[in-house]
Amino acid sequence: MGLLKILLKLSFLLMLGAVVAGAVFFVKRPKDDTPISFEEWPSVPRNPEA
User: CA torsion, points 33, 38, 43, 46, in degrees to nearest 10?
Assistant: First the structure.
């Protein structure tokens, strides 16, 4: 029973750490204010080897 409690606490702490890390990553990501156009293809150079 003691081992099960330790494993549950460890998994809870890991989940909590993952939530905190995800929140920090979400907040720190750069804001891209350029609008996304679905009417135009992006300018991608052609691959001559294709």
Answer: 140
pLDDT digits (tens, 9 = 90+) for 22-43: 999 988 887 766 677 677 776 7
Structure tokens that stand for 30 in this block: 């750069």
Average pLDDT over residues 7-19: 97
Token duo for residue 16: 């909590």
What six digits make up the tokens of 36?
A: 């996304």
Q: Which helix (H) or strand (E) holds 18?
A: helix 2-28
CA distances, 39 to each of 6, 34, 43, 45 (Å): 55, 15, 13, 18
